[in-house]
Amino acid sequence: MDIKYMELKEASLTYDLFVPFHRHQEVKKCWRKEDNNWILKEIAFIEEWNKEEKEYLAECLKNTIKTDGKVCGSFYNGELIGFVSVEKEMFGSKKQYVELTSLHISEEYRGKGVGKQLFQMAQKYCLEFGASKLYISAHSSQETQAFYKAMGCVEAEEYNMAAVEKEPCDCQLECLAKFDGN
């Protein structure tokens, strides 16, 4: 499978880019923090992006680029199959964090290494921005958390309260920035 990875420019971030992208996830279990312990709970729902959500996403990613952040896409046969975005603004008590604001893989391409490659691009951007850690306010589903754990993520030492307020059920994670050049 010949997958191409490229940094995206503002002009390419249109609704049309996301039309073939299949954001579908059947969630059965989610992690919740109760009394300082993480518990896997039966919480079932389906995530699916509609036209308005894809349009909004395109605008959010354009804003990431306008504010000097980075967006990288993965393409197969000319269609977007995955993307990652990292904001440039550093935060934390030592300005150690930049935020990975999105990482999504089209359903039919999950489990093929695309997410891992995009995560490594996010780590590269983190280093380029001068931060030492990626901060991720990540979906609490069992599958999403398993992916981030496999990437070396752990619970964040410092929580970004704006992220917590925006998505109170998300898991707040961090990962050391490293890039092996591949």
TrEMBL record:
<dbReference type="GO" id="GO:0008080">
    <property type="term" value="F:N-acetyltransferase activity"/>
</dbReference>
<feature type="domain" description="N-acetyltransferase">
    <location>
        <begin position="6"/>
        <end position="170"/>
    </location>
</feature>
<dbReference type="InterPro" id="IPR039840">
    <property type="entry name" value="NAA80"/>
</dbReference>
<keyword id="KW-0808">Transferase</keyword>
<protein>
    <submittedName>
        <fullName>Acetyltransferase (GNAT) family protein</fullName>
    </submittedName>
</protein>
<dbReference type="GO" id="GO:1905502">
    <property type="term" value="F:acetyl-CoA binding"/>
</dbReference>
<dbReference type="GO" id="GO:0005737">
    <property type="term" value="C:cytoplasm"/>
</dbReference>
<dbReference type="InterPro" id="IPR016181">
    <property type="entry name" value="Acyl_CoA_acyltransferase"/>
</dbReference>
<dbReference type="Pfam" id="PF00583">
    <property type="entry name" value="Acetyltransf_1"/>
</dbReference>
<dbReference type="InterPro" id="IPR000182">
    <property type="entry name" value="GNAT_dom"/>
</dbReference>
